[in-house]
Amino acid sequence: MMTTYVVSGLNSISSISSFNDNFRSKNSNILLSRRILLFNLRRRSFYVSNVAIDQKLKTKDSSSDEGFTLDDFQPDSTSVLSSIKYHAEFMPSFSPEKFELPKAYYATAESVRDMLIINWNATYDFYEKMNVKQAYYLSMVFLQGRALLNAIGNLGLTGPYGDALTKLGYSLEDVARQEPDAALGNGGLGRLVSCFLDSMATLNYPAWGYGLRYRYGLFKQLITKDGQEEVAENWLEMGNPWEIVRNDISYPVKFYGKVIEGADGRKEWVGGEDITAVAYDVPIPGYKTKTTINLRLWLTKLAAEAFDLQSFSSTRMETMPKHMKPRQICYVLYPGDESLEGKTLRLKQQYTLCSASLHDIIARFKRRSGNAVNWDQFPEKVAVQMNDSHPTLCIPELLRILMDVKGLSWKQAWEITQRTVAYTNHAVLPEALEKWSFTLLGELLPRHVEIIAMIDEELLHTILAEYGTEDLDLLQEKLNQMRILDNVEIPSSVLELLIKFEENAVDVEKAEEQEEEGKDDSKVEETEAVKAETTNEEEETEVEKVVVEDTQAKIKRIFGTHPNRPQVVHMANLCVVSGHTVNGVAEIHSEIVKEDVFNEFYKLWPEKFQNKTNGVTPRRWLSFYNPELSEIITKWAGSNDWLVNTEKLAELRKFADNEELQSEWRKAKGNNKMKIVSLIKEKTGYVISPDAMFDVQIKGIHEYKRQLLNIFGIVYRYKKMKEMSPEERKEKFVPRVCIFGGKAFATYVQAKRIVKFITDVGATVNHDPEIGDLLKIVFVPDYNVSVAEVLIPGSELSQHISTAGMEASGTSNMKFSMNGCILIGTLDGANVEIREEVGEDNFFLFGAQAHEIAGLQKERAEGKFIPDPRFEEVKAFIRTGVFGPYNYEELMGSLEGNEGYGRADYFLVGKEFPDYIECQDKVDEAYRDQKKWTKMSILNTAGSFKFSSDRTVHQYARDIWRIEPVELP
Question: Of 895, 892, 889, which is closest to residue 911 (Cα–Cα)?
Answer without folding.
Answer: 895
